[in-house]
Structures are given as C-alpha cells and as structure tokens.
Design brief:
mainly alpha
C-alpha cells in the first residue's frame, strides 16, 4: 500500500464521523418542523447523535448568557458586572440534567421505553428553536424601538412555547405514550426533579455541617495538646 493510499484510508473514519455529526446536527431543523416523525426517527432510526445533542445544549446555554449580557437594556435589565458566566450556565445545565434523570427514573413506573441517552438527546434537540430565534433577537433588540417591544416579546414567547411543545412531543415519541400519559409523566418528572434537587441540597448541607464539626473538633484537640 502506498503512502497516499495509507493516509487516505486513515482519514476516512474521521471524515465519515464528522459528516455524520453534521448530518445529525442538520437533522435538528427537520425535527423542529416535523416533530412527530422527527423525534420518532431520532429515537428509532438513530438519526441523532450525542455529539449533536451536546452541541445544541452548549448553544442553548451560550445563547442564554449572551442574551443576558448583550440584549438592549430597553428589553432586559441585568447588572452585567455581577454576571458569572459559569454560574449562569450551571444554573440551567444542572436542572436540565436533573429533569432528564427524573424523567428516566419515573417513566419506568409508566412503562416508558426511553433510555436516559434517548431522553437527553430528544430534550437537547427540542431546544433548537430557542437558539434559532433568541440568538438573532439579541441583535434585533438593538434595532427595535421601545414602542416595538411587543414584537420582541412575541418572538421570545413563541420560541419558548415552541420548545415546550417539542419537549412534549419528544417525550411522547421516545416513551411511546399517549398525550394524557405524557402530560402525567411530565408533571411527575417536575415533582421528581424538585425532590432530587432538595435531597442534593440537604446532602451537601449535612456534609458541610459535618466538615465544620470535624474541623472545629480538630482545632480544639490541637489547641489542648499544644
């Protein structure tokens, strides 16, 4: 085998993987316009990918932060000097992952068919309208006058409602539920996520108290032995 053929053969897997990544990323546009068929194929035909889902989640978090930092002050009032980018991203990413975990755990009680990976990918793809609409709205906020704020608000609300509808359809197709069962599972998921977050907060609170107790005990023993 010549050197050129050897290099060509080693490049093919990476090129194929990147092409599949781009195809799965573009497939998000089909999902948001044909949600029922899109999410069914996303799960059953494996049209999506974990890499594309991670990209959509990152773009969602990035859009949220850019919206807070660069939207015209006439439409949103946020003290930019106090914004912690990583904290803001974590404040959305953590509840998002907890919701995926809670849905996976609770839907087993409803005979759900989706795995955690399927739920995560579907939820990430459902965030696409948020990025496609709210990212241009950041620039649009610097063009519109304050009297035209209703148009801006309609676009923002439309993107959020669209995302909510896509999440509903995604969970319905992933778990093969009917609309009523999907609604019940979503309510149970929200309650379950709140319970998980509460237990995590209690755990870290007890852990902090225990650490403080042993630190004080160590200082006391050290003081008496010195």
């Amino acid at each position: 085998m010549t050197e050129a053929k050897r290099l060509q053969s080693t490049d093919r897997p990476s090129e194929k993987g990147f092409s599949r990544y781009l195809a799965s990323l573009r497939y998000a546009l089909y999902v948001i316009t044909h949600p029922f068929d899109g999410f069914w194929d996303l799960n059953r035909e494996k049209r999506g990918s974990l890499a594309a889902a991670n990209t959509m989640l990152f773009l969602f978090l990035l859009t949220y932060v850019l919206k807070l930092m660069y939207t015209n002050f006439q439409f949103i009032m946020v003290p930019i000097q106090y914004i912690n980018v990583y904290q803001r991203m974590a404040s959305l990413a953590l509840p998002f992952l907890v919701l995926c975990l809670a849905n996976w755990a609770l839907t087993t009680l409803f005979d759900g068919k989706g795995r955690f990976k399927d739920i995560y990918i579907g939820m990430c793809y459902a965030l696409t309208p948020y990025v496609l609409i709210q990212l241009p709205c950041i620039l649009l906020s610097h063009v519109l006058a304050y009297d035209e704020a209703d148009f801006y608000s309609v676009l923002i609300s439309f993107s959020e409602i669209w995302c909510g509808f896509l999440v509903f359809v995604a969970l319905m197709e992933i778990h093969d539920f009917g609309p009523g069962k999907t609604l019940i599972s979503i309510v149970a998921t929200v309650i379950g996520a709140m319970v998980i977050l509460f237990l995590v907060m209690v755990f870290f609170s007890l852990l902090s108290d225990a650490f403080s107790f042993f630190a004080s005990l160590y200082k006391e023993v050290r003081f008496r032995l010195s």
